[in-house]
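User: For my dataset I need records formatted as: sequence, then structure tokens, nothing else. Please produce one.
Assistant:
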Amino acid sequence: MKHRVCSLLLLVLVLVPTMAQAAPSIPTPDPMGMPGGMVMPTLPAATATPGGMVMPTPQLATTASAGPLPTPMRNFPTAQVAVFMARVRDLPNINGGSTVLELLAQGQTVHMYKQLADHSWYGVMTPAGGHGWMHVSVITFDPQILLSLPVAAGDLRVVDMPMGHPTAAPAAVDPPLAMAGLNQAEIVALPPADPTAAQAQAAPKVSVDLTLQVCFDQNGSKSCDEGDGVQDVIVQVSDTQTTELLQQGLTDRRGVIHMQLQAPEGTTLRVAVPAIPIVQTVLVAPLRPGELQRPPITLTPVLLPTAALPWPLP
């Protein structure tokens, strides 16, 4: 019996190594169970930070360049708005039923892509992406670009007068215009043979400050709203008795002109916009009791009707 037990133990010792060698190998699965032999990237080494927090070592990331943005108008010349507020219209005219599409502020840039043959109007693309027409008087640009700028063809429905050629204004009339809210000067119309004329000529000259604004009443508000001012309008001041021209100037980008001149007390000044029949007369009155200097005189704004415009509008 003891002999059999020994024989069985010896047999077990011989078979166990053999079975271990013959056992089929178990395939090691891919990391994370991913088929195709995909290998997970190695995580960056951890870096110890104060406080026991462990942060991964930062890696530089590469970003693909977006390249140049598609800009269809980038090859077209540019112009800048030269007036306080300029209008972009759907048609190259002001009296032929054109519509204002946008208002652009001074300094904004537009792209020019076509022009009329007489160089008076230019097709532009606005910063907002709109398209329309702007007049030469409201933008500034390098004149050399006109040599290569395409000329617009086809019927543009320009039914108003050619821009830049003033219409004949009717004979000037001298009706006095009321001046509202002013107490430093009186506006009167003196007859030609007024006896105060001789006294006015002999009186010493005093300083007179005049301010006048010329606007195009686009919205019919009967007032000069922001952006309504008309630039480069001629304003003349003369003596009603001697007809001597005392001063002449042009309105600025806001349609405003400030004029300072010397005139005798009692003189009646004639302030006129020669292109249209609008005249204001101002009496240079003596200083009132307690006044140390003559306050500036602000004249009634001149509102231009559409039908009487002898110059282009913004």
